[in-house]
Structure formats: structure tokens, C-alpha cells
Amino acid sequence: MTLPAVDDRNADQIAYWNGAGGRHWTDRQQLQDIVLAPVSEVLIDRAKVKTGEAVIDVGCGCGSTSFDLAKRVGPGGHVSGIDISEPMLSRARELTPLGEPVEFVLADATVYPFAPANTDLLFSRFGVMFFAQPSVSFANMRKALRPDGRLAFACWRTPRDNPWMMLGLQEAYKHVPKLPEVKPEDPGPFAFASEERVHRILGEAGFMNIAMERVDLLLDIATGRGLEAAIESILAIGPTSRALDGQPPDKIAAATESIRSMLRSHLNGNSVSLGGSIWIVTAVNGR
């Protein structure tokens, strides 16, 4: 895996998403797309995608949002998915429907030489919280926008607002050591939880008319397949997975049983729905 150009400050994220992180998401691509479908639906609605538009999908991963966007822009439009993860982009290329107006680019959006002023929409579902210096990254991406171009992305709110990610971790912590503390502004899923910080970053990058809408959701981590599937979801991806990685088998087994007991109270038929909370962020080019 060789990216054409990178910002060295993003090296840790590039290594992670081309290693264990990228593999885990690729292995669970279809299931994760189902879990996050409610997010995609509301984000695409707020982005107001139009027929014939040119869109850049930042942190496109395995391509599900790029394909959704391609359906909206139609054959007269175009979608460019950009990501730092070769495993995820390989899956996206495998899944690309024949004739869809979409392409995928392996690149670091912080330094990638986007064609200037030829994009209508910068879009991202959880792909923009991992930059080491996000205002620099957004300033570079903004160069791609037409003068009347716009930005729309989804990011997670605080850990407390997202029990779908944190309840399993709390159960695991009864049996294994806690993960190293992550500072609020460190790259990661909750790096954009602060409304003030997001406004500051986007303002420094040259965006205007910044708006943030709180959206609360229920996410079925079982994907309609029952309790054991929900447990598998928690153990495979996210902070609980990282906390249990490398732990002794007996500790993992004890944590798994605690998670199973906790999830039983959320079981409804074959679904296990837990709360998630996001920001839908929109802005316009400040040129």
C-alpha cells in the first residue's frame, strides 16, 4: 500500500486503517452498512444531493455512501470516493455496480491535489474526525468546491450520548484494564463532539453558514439476527474490541458474558437497538 502523498501527522491513522482497523471493517462491511443505514439516510437527506452534481465522499470506506450518492446524482453526475484505507477501497471497487458514475481514490485528503473549483458537494459519513490537523485538511478539501459549493457530514456526539458504542465497553471494563485515555481533541470517533470546536475548525478552513443539527437514532447492532449477533458486533468493532484485544481468553470470556447479560435487557425479538447520537454538519464555501 503506497499513498501518493501523505501528511506525516496522519501516519498513525493511515497505519491503523490499512491494518487491523481496515480489515475489521472490511470483514463486516455488509453488516456495518445495515447498522449505519439510518445515519446515511438522514445525512443524504440533509445534504440535498441533486441530479447532475459532482460529489466527493471523504472517508468513503467500503463505498456504501458513494453508491447511495451515485444513485442521487445519476448518470449526468459523478462521485469520487476518497480514503486512506486500501483494504476498504478494494472492497468498494469490488462492489461497484457496472456503469455507476463513481470512482475511488486512495489518498490522504489533507494533501491530495483536488481539481480546483469543480465539486458541488463535500460529503462524509464519519470520515472527517481522524485528521491530525483538521482545519488544514478542510482547507485543502475546500479548494475542490465551486464558489457556491457546500459541505455536509455526520460525526458522533459525546461517548455518553452513544450507548451503542459505550455500554459494551463499560461491561468489558469490569474484567480488563481501561484503554489509554483519549483527549477530547485527539483524532478518533468523538473528536468532533464539541460544537464550539467544529465551528472553529470549519471557520479557520474558510467555510461559512455553519449549522449543526443534533439527531438521535436507534441503531440495531444485531441487524435483526438476535442476541448473539449483537454480541458479535460489539466484540468485532469499536472500543470494546480494542479493550479486549490481546487479553487472556478467560478475561474475554468473562467480559463476553457480562455483555450478553447487559444486552438481554435490550433484546426485542431479533433486534438489539441502542441509542446513537450524531451531529449533522452543513456549511457553504466561504469564497
Briefly characterize the structure.
With about 290 residues, the chain is of the alpha/beta class. The chain has twelve helices and eight strands.
Count of helical stretches: 12
Number of strands: 8
Oligomer, anyone? single chain
Overall geometric form? globular
Q: Write the H/E string, N to C.
A: HHHHEHEHEEHEHHEHHHEE
Rg calculated over all Cα atoms: 19 Å
Low-confidence residue ranges:
none
> What's the mean pLDDT score?
94
Report the end-to-end length measured between terminal Cα atoms.
Answer: 36 Å
Strand count, sense and barrel status of the largest sheet are: 8 strands, mixed
Portion of residues within helices: 40-55%
Q: Give the strand content.
A: 15-25%
Q: Supply the helix-strand structural class.
A: alpha/beta
What does this structure look like?
- By secondary structure, this protein is an alpha/beta fold.
- It contains 12 helices and 8 strands.
- It has helices spanning 11-17, 20-27, 29-35, 37-47, 64-73, 86-95, 134-142, 163-172, 195-205, 227-236, 239-244, 249-264; strands spanning 54-58, 78-83, 102-106, 119-125, 145-156, 207-220, 267-268, 271-285.
- Strands 1, 2, 3, 4, 5, 6, 7 and 8 form an 8-stranded mixed beta sheet that branches.
- Strand 7 (267-268) and strand 8 (271-285) form a beta hairpin.
- The longest helix is centred in the C-terminal third of the chain and has 16 residues, at 249-264.
- It is globular and about 55 Å long.
List the helices and strands and how they pair.
Elements: H1 11-17, H2 20-27, H3 29-35, H4 37-47, E1 54-58, H5 64-73, E2 78-83, H6 86-95, E3 102-106, E4 119-125, H7 134-142, E5 145-156, H8 163-172, H9 195-205, E6 207-220, H10 227-236, H11 239-244, H12 249-264, E7 267-268, E8 271-285
Parallel strand pairs: 1-2, 1-4, 2-3, 4-5
Antiparallel strand pairs: 5-8, 6-8, 7-8
Helix pairs in contact: 2-6, 7-9, 8-12, 10-12
